[in-house]
Amino acid sequence: MQYISTRGGMSPKKFSEILLGGLAPDGGLVVPDQYPTLSADDLKALAGKSYTDLAFAIISRFVDDIPAADLKALIDKTYTKAAFGTDEITPLTRLEDDLFIQQLSNGPTLAFKDMAMQLLGNLFEYVLNRAGEEINIVGATSGDTGSAAEYAMRGKKGVRVFMLSPYGKMSPFQRAQMFTLQDENIFNISVNNMFDACQDMVKAVNNDAAFKARYKIGAVNSINWGRVVAQVVYYFKGYFAVAKEVGEPVDFCVPSGNFGNICAAHVARQMGLPIRNLVVATNENDVLDEFFKTGGYHPRGLDQTYETSSPSMDITKASNLERFVFDLTGRDGAKLAALWHTVEKAKGFDLSAEDFARMRGEYGFRSDRSTHADRINSIREVFNKYGVQIDPHTADGYHAAKAHRQAGVKMVIMETALPAKFEATMQEALGSKPAMPAAVADLEKLPQRFDVMDADVQTLKDYVAARAG
After folding, report:
1. Distance between CA 129 and CA 143 in Å, rounded?
2. Distances in Å between the alpha carbon of 143 and those of 139, 175, 394?
3. How far apart are CA 442 and CA 36, in angstroms?
4. Which helix or strand (DSSP H or E) is residue 459 part of?
């Protein structure tokens, strides 16, 4: 398996060579030169496997430069009942006939990001130890990626984490998860701006080749290919859990802001998993909903980014969309680079009529958006009708799933986080506080450690340089 850049300017590399990085040297995103494909017989052979065995069967197709025994050991170390609360790892909750929620938030930070980040932490430590190297991770979070990354990397040998987040824009619980960590290798930076500004700062650092090389800058945001690979696994697990027989078409609905989680679903579909439609659920920051309904991708400015009650999706530049558009436009690096040049000039682009038709037909994408009122109504409806509490982001998914359900086709909604992370919204919807796991009940009372910074790239570089060792 070789990896290339969506923009065509990177020589092929192996998995371990691209694992620690973010953007490719030409500013593009790393993708496999081809997707491994699975036959009907291959799928049937995978259907009955445990989560760890399934994960090894999928991930090993993308990772062939780590000895199989070592890779299997890393996977077995990651996906345990102790870490995720159940041997199933991602069990499904049946709401009614043909409608399910796949539980992805049973990990240490109560969000789906743990599913990939816990493995990434172990992979990073393994690869760094093998090479005798260190890394400084510079990332940005709108809510859940930061805590998942920090919990995965805390105490890891040879790893420092510099995590940017928008000042005052996350829920109190999300802030507490990150800022209460006292590990010496964790640095929290609260930026006086929106998430997109944080993301732009991280991209600027990654685009400075000399700085990146000198300080060994790596990435764990959703642009990291290792995260995408790990997320592919649970789409296979969810499919096998609901399909009566291999080959039956199943729909998945995925709340998405940066297009990372649903990008993994697209990869699973390209590998041969019989997914019919992929439904993208957004909030009022609906740049993705607009794209999948009209074919126009026009990221908004920071002054057009709304603060919502599903804050982890308050994003108007969907970084991972580049990977899908690369496939959609025939994997033409020059064409993709030209399209993203217009994005970087704040103009955006519109798909051709042919590509738009292929996106909805051949690739099966659909979308919908929610408002705050929709989220409140969805939380109430799911609780009153099914006795299940869902967080505001999963509520965005429920709203979109209802809009796109088809009789006789199973729909799986991908859970985003546990309700405990969003107490104020849950209180508004249900009139009571959400259930809080005992292990984190007093988290918001603990001392918090973070630094406040304006959205200035040079200030960030100076901060990293002073602490990078």
Report:
1. 30
2. 12, 8, 14
3. 45
4. helix 457-467
Contacts of 148 by beta carbon, 8 Å cutoff, 6+ apart: 107, 109, 111, 113, 114, 117, 118
Q: And the tokens for 261?
A: 């989680």
Q: What is the pTM of this model?
A: 0.93
Residues involved in catalysis = 113
CB within 8 Å of 308: residues ≥ 6 apart: 283, 284, 285, 314, 372
Pairing of strands 275-282, 296-297: unpaired
Beta carbons within 10 angstroms of residue 448's beta carbon: 13
CB 233 within 8 A of CB 62: no
* Of residues 204, 212, 183, the one with CA closest to residue 465: 212
Partners of 92 in the β-ladder: 102
**Using CA atoms, how far apart are residues 36 and 231, in angstroms rounded to an integer?**
15
Residue type (1 letter), 466? A
Looking at residue 182, its amino acid is Q
Helix axis angle, 321-328 relative to 261-271, nearest 10°?
A: 30
- Which tokens sit at 147? 């805590």
Cα–Cα distance between 170 and 119 in angstroms, integer?
25
Crossing angle for the helix pair 321-328 and 353-360, to the nearest 10 degrees: 110
* Pair of tokens at residue 143: 């809510």
Element containing residue 160 per DSSP (H, E): strand 159-166
pLDDT, averaged in runs of 10, over the chain (469 residues): 97 95 89 98 97 98 98 98 96 98 96 95 94 93 87 92 94 93 96 93 91 90 91 98 97 96 98 98 97 96 88 90 97 96 91 97 98 98 98 98 97 96 96 89 94 98 93
Q: Are 102 and 233 in contact (CB under 8 A)?
A: no
For residue 315, CA distances in Å to 80, 282, 300, 373, 457 come to: 32, 10, 9, 19, 19
